[in-house]
Structure formats: structure tokens, C-alpha cells
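User: Please write out a complete single-protein record containing the residue sequence and its fold in C-alpha cell form, without commentary.

AI:
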Amino acid sequence: MNIATPSGQASWPGVLDRYRSLLELPAQTAAVTLLEGNTPLVPMPRLAAELGAEGIWVKYEGLNPTGSFKDRGMTVALSEAVHGGARAVICASTGNTAASAAAYAARAGVRCAVLIPEGKVAAGKLAGAIAYGARVAQIRGSFDEALALVVEVSKREPIALVNSLNPFRLEGQKTAAFEICDVLGSAPELLALPVGNAGNITAYWMGFCQYDAAKGTGRPQLLGVQAEGAAPLVLGHDVDRPETVATAIRIGRPARGAQALAAARESGGRIVSVGDGEILAAQRRLAAEGVWVEPASAAGVAGLRAEVDAGRLELRGRRVVCVCTGHGMKDPDVVTARFEGARTVPSSLDAIAELARG
């Protein structure tokens, strides 16, 4: 379905209508859309040269309508919820899901309730949920505890759950794999991405497998990356009190953990963990090439560099895509906390020229 713009030109229709024939969704479901998707695949030539790859691209999901990849799944989940007669939706969130659910619920004209862990959500993400009109509450507990509560509420009440346990979320999120193949002409040899609740890595693998079966695009090796303080899939057990600066992946009991491990194994890849220092260094490295992402989004690049530096991964002759899941404005405090304030300089041409010269 094309959407007419004031100039009469066709615009991007959103992921549901762009890829409807590839989604497991009732044909008559009307799209609740903010024209999500079609995010750029940004080449990173200097990073590719540093790591010895044929090419490295960033799939910049921070340019979705609410600033994160969550919009891909939320458009499909909300569309199906409304199609099924839901008048309210609910989710637990570390931030990005809250903003996305609230925006798409507002678009659909239905109520949205959000449960968050107290003091564990970045202000930029919480502000989004509030701005879009969600009813937000916090609990003195973890994301995993919040998720367990909203799951039970959705079973007892006529309220649609829109966390990644909802299978329609994965249907929408897998469209990012389709877009990557459409731009590159085939799947990359390697895909690196953050892993929190593990829905996204599961969805990407679904998408690559489906596109390969339909179009012969190939399948990448997957490198999933968790933060060391929240790495249950690396440790092999749940983490009761996950801690990391990367708030979006501060999850100790990933809902799609088993599927994520299976996807990594089937791809010939693996899931690894990196420290917060490595994540923040990767965030700065991406910004140095013009791409500002929230800390969790830099985990894929951090893991990629760590594996290359340790000699566990060879990138020569390979095309690599790093998924960056959220915009830097989602969690600006990490950057501003290091900023000591702007210098005061005289209002003179010489002083300004000296500043520019460095």
C-alpha cells in the first residue's frame, strides 16, 4: 500500500504493508503505523579498516519513529491487538518498549499501561511513554519481576500483552533482516547485535531464514552480545540482580533466551559478553564516525571488537552488519555526565579561531 504525500509522491508504507505477504498475520488486519522501518544501513569505512573487514555497516534502528527498533514489532502487535478488539495494552519495560507501546497505542486510540523497574529506566525513554499518554507505574523490583506481573494481568483481564512474548512482535522485528538483504543484495556474512530479552536476535534469525528460503539470500553468522553484569545466556543461569550502564539490556531472565541460543548455534555463531567500559568505548567509537547510539546499542560493536582483538573472530573478506537498536537521545545522561561544561572564551575572532584550530 502506497501512502500519498502532499506532493503526490509515494512514501514508505511502514513494515506491515511493505512486507505483509511475509508476515504471519490475518490478511484483513489494518495497519496501525507511524511509517516505521526503512532505517539506513550506514557504512563505517574507518571501523571496517580497523577490524580488517571487507565492509562494516550499522543498521541504525534509532531512526525509527520513537527512536528504537521496538517500533517494528509494535506496529504489528498493536495492529493485531486492535484487530482482535483490544481497547487496552500493557507491557513491562526497561524503556524503549514503553515509549513504543505508548506511541502506537496513542496512534490506535487505545489505552496503554506500562510497568517499569524503579529507578532503572533512562529519563529519555520514560519521557516518551509519558508524552504519548501511557499510564506508567514502577515497582521495587527488576524488569523480570515486572514482566511476570504484566503477563499474569494479561491472562486475567481483557488487556493485550505487547512485550516480545507476543509472537506478533517478532513478526515485525524480523523485517529488519529483510531490509538488510534488500540493500546489500544478500545477507551479510556476520550480524552483531545486543541481546537483552533476546527477542531481537530471535527475530533476525527468523527473518534471514525466511528470506533465504524465499529468495536465496543466504544466512549470516550471528554474534549476540550481552553486558557482563547482565549475561545469563553466557553464564548459563539467570541473574537475579542484573547491573549494567546499558539499561536496555539490563535483563536477567530473557524471555526468548532458549530461542536466542538456538539461533546463535544454528547460525554457527555465539553469544558473548563485554564489560561496561567496552560498551562505552564502542559508543564513543561509533560517535566518532557520526553515529550516536544509546549504550546498549553499542554492545554489538563492543563484542565484535573484543572477539577480533582476542583472535576468536576473523573478518578479512567478510561483510558485517552491526545492529544499533536505539538513538543516543534515549539515554543522554551517560554522555553529559562526563561533560565538564562548555569553555568560556572571549568574544573575539582570535579566540574563536583558536578554538576551531583545536
In short: The chain has two domains: 3-68+169-336, 70-165. Confidence is low (pLDDT under 50) at residues 1-6.
